[in-house]
Structure formats: C-alpha cells, structure tokens
Amino acid sequence: MIVAPLKVAILSAAGQELFPACCPEPVDLLHFHDPELFFSAHADLYIDCEFEPDPVRIKKLSHLLPAAVMVNSVCQTIAELGQPFTRFNGWTGFSDPQVLEIALASEDIPVALEQFALACGRTCIRVPDTVGMVRPRIIAMIINEAWLALGEEVSSEHEIDVAMKMGTNYPFGPFEWGEKIGLHRIHRLLSQLSLIDSKYKPAARLAAALQTS
Question: CA within 20 to 30 Å of 48's CA: 91, 124, 163, 194, which one?
C-alpha cells in the first residue's frame, strides 16, 4: 500500500495525450522534459513516454527499481528488455485515452500503477507481452494496407483518409494516423512482425516514404 501522496514522475514531450497534466489527491504528478531530472526524481511510479531501448536508458531505468517503472515500449517485450518493467502503448491518436494498454512481467499490477490509474480515471487493460501488443498491431496493419492501396493506385492519400473516416468513424485516416504516430515506428513494428509472418511485410511505398522524409 502506497502512503499518500502518491508521487508519479512522467517523462514526456510537450503535447503527449495519454496522461493528464494533474490528478486529484492523493496523486502528485511530476512532469519532466529533461531525462536526467526524471531519473533523479523520487517517486513511487516512473513513466517513460519517450523510451528507446538502448542499453544506457534501460540501465538508468533499472536503477529506479523496485519502484514501479512503466515504459512506452510497443515493439520490445519485457523478455527482450531484460527488466521487470511494465510496458504500455503510448502511441498517438487512439480514440479512447481512458484506456491504458499494458503488458506485465508479473501476475499482479503494481499497487502504485493501480492507484494512479484509479485516481486519474484510467482503466488498465492487460494484454500479452508480445511484439506490437494489440491496438498498435491492428492500426499498423491498417496503415500498411492503405500504403499498399496507394501503391496499386486504388486512390489518393486524401481520398483513402476521407473514406476510412467516413466509413469506419475512425478519428483519423490511415495516412494521417501514420504521420501522428511516426512512419518509422509503423515500419519498425511491421518489420519485426514480418519476421514471424510475411503478411506484415511493410508496403514498398511506405518504405520509400521513409527514405524521402
């Protein structure tokens, strides 16, 4: 049980949409843009929205244990990271910001994370510790299909975006969504998944767009 106030340190760029600027008591949110200040903070829960799986970053985060540590790691599993972090899907643009998609190494959600989620109105949805989790894998495939359609000259980017928004009530068209998430992230996930199943092979036009961007 965490003694109030619950201190939560969040490392994120300006404009991240998943976590609130403040929470009701007993949560004390500490927002950081500087990684070194984040790593030196004293908190019960650390959330790294800008996570990249380089050894130095992983080592610094491991020094924060046994406090709960969450990393925005869609592609790398906990087994690959080699640390008992909690993974979360921090990709941009999902229509329900109240849902927090997480993967864990243990059976139990950390107490600090449960209290933070409850106080801030987030519902933790636990998914298997797999590459791509659930929602990122689905949207990456949709975006890839849009690039395949563009390559086959089915329609234009604008028309495909409009058709998907009007036909499926998605918040963004696949090309818009890809830009918000980052085409490099989409391509990275698809490339990793294609090692398991060739249906995930990135579209040629998507790869070409990355080279010219």
Answer: 194
Helix ranges (H only) for 63-127 are 78-81, 111-119
Distance CA 189, CA 165 (A): 23
Q: Give CATH for domain 135-212.
A: 1.10.1040.50
pLDDT of residue 49: 94
SS3 content of the chain, % helix, strand, coil (to 5): 40, 15, 45
The DSSP letter of residue 125 is E
* Under 8 Å between Cβ of 13 and 48: no
pLDDT of residue 92: 87
Beta-strand runs (E) in 51-119: 68-72, 86-88, 99-103
**pLDDT confidence band for 95 (50 / 70 / 90):** low
Closest C-alpha to 46, from 6, 13, 79, 100: 6
DSSP at 12: -
pLDDT of 200 reads 95
Q: Does domain 6-126 have CATH number 2.60.40?
A: no
**Among 68, 53, 50, residue whose Cα is nearest residue 2:** 68
Please give the Cα distance from 8 to 45 (Å, whole number). Answer: 5
Q: What is the pLDDT of residue 68?
A: 96
Q: How far apart are CA 25 and CA 87, in angstroms?
A: 25
| Predicted structure pTM score | 0.90
- Mean predicted confidence (pLDDT) in 107-117: 92
> Domain spans of the chain?
6-126, 135-212
